[in-house]
Amino acid sequence: MAMFDLPLAALHDYRPALDEPADFDAFWARTLTEAREHDLAASLTPYDALLPGVQVFDVRFRGYGGQPVAAWLILPTVRSGPVPCVVQFIGYGGGRGRPHEWLLWPAAGYAVLVMDSRGQGDGDTPDLAGDTTPHHSGLMTRGVLDPELYYYRRLFTDAVRAVDLAATLDDVDADRIVVAGASQGGGIAQAVAGLHRRVRAALIDVPFLTWFRRATEITDSYPYQEISVFLATNRDRIADVFATLGYFDGVHLAARGTAPALYSVGLMDDVCPPSTVFAAYNHYAGPKTIQVWPYNRHEGGGSQQAPVQLPWLRDQLT
């Protein structure tokens, strides 16, 4: 894949006009208020992962609608008091996985709370009551004709509640909570940074769920293609679909983020095109920096992104 999007100089200046719903803030205030009417009802069950350098807990808490959400809490075994916590979100189609996959942050001295994505992965968190089958695709259009019913209303709310949970944990420094993720996880981290004032810093890698309209117009890659296929069939519902997506668009949520943010982007990324990432980055309201990987696609910096994140995060949390 060659560089198919705008040149880098133009990307740094790319700041499309916001076209958000008039009741955007009221919608999210009501959604989160309703979710917080349910007690978190958190349970932390010790889990023997045969990893003596860390302490692992199998976590359950109440997310959207009081529905149960699974997570891993992984702490460094050696710690002198409450530690910063990275709340980690997952890419499209994936779930919380297994504890050994999430050792970077505990190795750096942080806790990590890895939130399962409802209806995705291996099925630890159902999306809707009675529907325990995990979905590999199709979630981009699940409920897309009504913002009240749209899938990402539930998932973003779960993510906000995950930060609420992290702030209650005895071993976590509630003033040093970080949100992180790549692709869908990056889009979720971006959303939570815009919705939760307790976030201290945000690691937003190659974010998905951002500038939907342009994404559907310039890439044939999935998952954005799920929306395009839906619209090709439902020709008379285009306005309805983008009216719903306006409540969940990362560009609108980024405009409300105030915590320092470290973004990353691949200039050959056909899954999350660079202009969609820069649209959100340029609107992000807080202090920000972006790591550009010129010859990479959706993998972005891959294993080389962590060496960029670690010193940046150390500086934010000191």
UniProtKB/TrEMBL annotation:
Gene3D superfamilies, alphabetized: alpha/beta hydrolase (3.40.50.1820)
SUPFAM superfamilies xref list: alpha/beta-Hydrolases (SSF53474)
A UniProt-annotated Pfam family: AXE1
Highest taxon of source: Bacteria
Limits of the Acetyl xylan esterase domain: 1-314
InterPro entries: AB_hydrolase_fold, AXE1_dom, CE7
Name of the protein in question: Cephalosporin-C deacetylase
Biological source species: Actinoplanes palleronii
Gene: axeA
